[in-house]
Amino acid sequence: SGNNLEDLRKETEYYLSLMGKQKENQTKALILMFHETISLLISNSEYTAPTVAVGSIIPPSQHCFHKVLQSFFLSRSERCNHFAEKILQSPEGARQNHIFILFYYALNSFKVAEIVHTKKIQAVPEQALSSFREAAEHSKENFQNKIDLLEAELYNRDGEHDKAKASYVAAIASARSSKFIHEEGLAYEKAALHNKKIGELADALDYFMKAKKCYKKWGSQVKADEIERRI
């Protein structure tokens, strides 16, 4: 949603404090998982809060959902792909987060395709675009930026650099309009990598700096530090 991560962490800690030392239940376990994900996105240091069992208390699909988010933003592409496919291949009833996971799965597929050269991976972005275009008919505010960014990455992959530039700009603008600060940062980051690839280093640096600013506003020091290493 683009909410500040520190605010979200405080909110989860507030609810955990209300629960006190009560016996572990599914609600408490889910909040603990959100707390873990939020904390790792803020700072990729060792997580020391209590952990929860998977399966009997936490549905496997929920566990995989959090692992996808953690792996994507911590740049662990193969782990992200593994957990995303577990969700997307699950029975329909276990796909509560299907459409949101599909976005990260599709973006991540460009990295995975550099390692695993299969038609299945190559086809993921186009298949995802079809789903997002359909979803945008009902909620353009939630999905237009995702369409723009996936189109930009496809143009980048296919060497259509002018079209890629225009789509990155559109993705940045639509994410900002929807107040998705984390996805605005992501669009700036991808635009920076594209400009670096084609040798437009001044524009790449400008986009990297704007990506870093977005990630810091989101509250993700781990992403801000990653961008700093790329500069």
Order of SSEs:
HHHHHHHHHHH
Biggest sheet character? none
Note the beta-strand portion: under 5%
Number of strands: 0
Query: Span from first to last CA?
Result: 27 Å
Shape: globular
Query: Helical region count?
Result: 11
Overall structural class, as computed from helix and strand content, comes to mainly alpha
Radius of gyration (Å): 18 Å
Helix proportion of residues, in percent? over 70%
Low-confidence stretches: none
Average of the residue pLDDT scores = 90
In short:
With 231 residues, the protein is an all-alpha fold. Helix content is 74%, strand content 0%.
Please give a structural write-up.
This protein has 231 residues and is mainly alpha-helical. Helices cover 74% and strands 0% of the residues. The protein is built from eleven helices and no strands. The longest helix has 18 residues. The radius of gyration is 18 Å and the shape is globular. The model has no long low-confidence stretch (mean pLDDT 90).
Please name the defining characteristics of this protein.
single chain, 231 residues, mainly alpha, 11 helices
Give the arrangement of secondary structure elements.
Elements: H1 5-19, H2 26-42, H3 60-73, H4 77-88, H5 98-112, H6 119-136, H7 140-157, H8 161-177, H9 181-197, H10 201-218, H11 221-230
Helix pairs in contact: 1-2, 2-3, 3-4, 3-5, 4-5, 5-6, 5-7, 6-7, 7-8, 7-9, 8-9, 9-10, 10-11
